[in-house]
Design brief:
Helix 1 (15-24) links the parallel strand 1 and strand 2 (31-38). The protein has six helices and seven strands. It has helices at residues 15-24, 45-51, 67-80, 97-101, 123-129, 165-190; strands at 4-10, 31-38, 56-58, 85-88, 107-111, 134-141, 151-158. Helix 5 crosses helix 6 (165-190). The two termini are 13 Å apart. The protein has a seven-stranded mixed sheet with strand order 3-2-1-4-5-6-7, with helices on both faces. The chain binds 5-O-phosphono-beta-D-ribofuranosylamine. 5-O-phosphono-beta-D-ribofuranosylamine is lined by residues 10, 12-16, 89-90, 110-112, 173, 176.
């Protein structure tokens, strides 16, 4: 099987990166992580990449005059590593329309809500404030609308009495770690 070459883009902790890397160790998994790109030098996921011998680069947006220049450098790394699919995993910068349009149905993102409900930030608190009894996470394609691309897979859980944003975030994160590898496998195998 020829495995799809995947880049994971991160800004922080990188627990979803770790889940994807773990899934990729399976012989039958249809993708492999060939590159990690962080826009922040302090992103915790960089240590994970280094400990697991995955090529990683920091493309710090502070070092570029504008978004186009930053993305041009990202594109250079993607090309150098012959990347075929991109997984955003806690990547906290919005990609420009121009960048996204170069990768139609090739960029995935994981979002901690049941999209189209609660796009954007602070999803767990917003779910609680809205009194919803169900919550979860979504893997979707990235297009020019923030958290607005077509849904690939979702996973749900109940909001429990006494839940806080912190307790919900922890349970949703565990669900994310299962869902993202499943969704990437589906896309990579079909691509
Ligand atoms: C996750 O909750 C993800 O859904 C959101 O950002 C968080 C990233 O966590 N987009 P991690 O860096 O993968 O641990």
């Amino acid at each position: 099987m020829v495995k799809k070459r995947v880049a994971v883009m991160i800004s922080g902790r990188g627990s979803n990166l770790a889940a994807l890397v773990k899934a990729c160790t399976a012989v039958e998994y249809p993708a492999k992580i060939v590159l990690v790109i962080a826009n922040r030098p302090e992103a915790g996921g960089l240590e994970f990449a280094s400990a697991n011998a995955i090529p990683a680069v920091v493309v710090d947006h502070h070092e570029f005059t504008d978004r186009a220049a930053h993305e041009k450098e990202i594109a250079r790394h993607l090309a150098a590593h012959r990347v075929e699919l991109i997984c955003l995993a806690g990547y906290m910068r919005i990609l420009s329309q121009g960048f996204v349009q170069q990768w139609p149905d090739k960029i995935l993102n994981i979002h901690p809500s049941l999209l189209p409900e609660f796009p954007g930030l602070h999803t767990h608190q917003r779910v609680l404030d809205a009194g919803h009894t169900e919550h979860g996470c979504t893997v979707h394609y990235v297009n020019e609308v923030l958290d607005g691309g077509a849904v690939i897979m979702q996973a749900k859980l109940p909001v429990l009495p006494g839940d806080t944003a912190t307790s919900l975030a922890a349970r949703v994160l565990k669900l994310e770690h299962k869902l993202y590898p499943q969704a990437l496998a589906r896309v990579a195998a079909a691509d």
